[in-house]
Amino acid sequence: MMKALLIDDEKLAVMHMEKLLRELPEFDSIESYTDPAAAVEAARLSQPDVIFLDIVMPEINGMQAAEMMQQASPGSDIVFVTGYDRYAIEAFELNALDYVLKPVQRTRLAKTLTRLSGRRQEAEAPEVPAEETMVGCFKTLRPYAVPGSSEVPAFRWRTTRAQELFAYLLHHRERFVAKERLIQQFWPESPFKRASTYLYTAIYQIRQCLKQSGIHAEIVNTSGGEGYTLHLGGVVLDVDRFETGIRSLGAVTAATCARHLRLSELYIGDYLADYDYEWAEGERQRLRALQLHHASGLALFLLDSGQTAEAAAQYKKLTLLHPYSEYAHLGLLQAYAMLGDRLAVDECYRTAETLFEQELDVELPLILSQWYTSWNAGEFAGGGNVPIALRSGPN
């Protein structure tokens, strides 16, 4: 049995939604509010399973209200209910469970409940064990919050050299790295004895930093003191979880889509993107290619299955991570067209024009200009069929 909380400034809309929910056996507690502030406090006290929230309210923006709800009741799923569809992309970027247009129909509500039940089952069997700790390598080097813990102390490095050495050992995790190789990489101009002292000091600083952050990885001096091996122990890297998850799940299906979406959330930026580490470039490009392939397949599945707003959110993320990918821009144009959002299509096209013609000093890719011309001519009203180029995947 589940608890629901409803917020809508229109009394009749609240009553209609409450009536629909009370007819369903899944809910044993339903609270209704027209005052967003009172609803936030109620959510804080009752911690409902799901919150049905109107986006357009006179006193507060629905997106802001959703953020307040997430802070008050982090475990609650949010379903946006509104008479307007232009907020769909922003809703899914807030990780909303669903987006339902008024007037709410029983058949549409049934789809929402299917999603809700699936997410509740996943929450009961979380993928990350409570004893697990995580280290993030996407975009920036950081420790993850441990499930069940309120906070994990951030890494506090005494020197940038110690930070890079840790990243380097993490890059070569579970593998022996010779002392001479480390010295050549980080202190090539220093005499060997002095460089050895620098290395020992940096290793000590890393161990202290990991201890302070509660990361139980271990740096072991191996081969008679001739090098080091970083053992992760119970620590998991976001890059490993991302890659292992993609390969184990296989192609995106209705049964695996939710897990693929969670995997895609791990990729917040390129591998160690915030640092100018030349030695990381090969792995950075490999993971970039993997992410592009995965996100493209996921977005196309969402597009084909009618989850157009979610698909648009995925394509939008692709254009940010891969700004020079004509495939990403084409996907976003197609998704906006299928949503019927003409303003978004025009803005997306102008952004692509500026990027290619002004920043790269090249002509806009023909596939984009041809698509836009056809769309303006009304050759596929409402978005039409998905272009063949999207099905063939990125180059």
From TrEMBL:
DNA-binding as UniProt keyword: yes
Lineage top rank: taxon: Bacteria
One GO-annotated biological process of the protein: phosphorelay signal transduction system
Domain Response regulatory as annotated: residue spans: 3-117
Modified residues (4-aspartylphosphate): 54
InterPro entries (UniProt xref): AfsR-DnrI-RedD_regulator, BTAD, CheY-like_superfamily, OmpR/PhoB-type_DNA-bd, Sig_transdc_resp-reg_C-effctor, Sig_transdc_resp-reg_receiver, TPR-like_helical_dom_sf, WH-like_DNA-bd_sf
Alphabetical list of PROSITE patterns matching this protein: OMPR_PHOB, RESPONSE_REGULATORY
Domain OmpR/PhoB-type per the UniProt entry, residue ranges: 123-232
Keywords: DNA-binding, Phosphoprotein, Transcription, Transcription regulation, Two-component regulatory system
Protein name, as recorded: Response regulator
Originating organism: Saccharibacillus brassicae
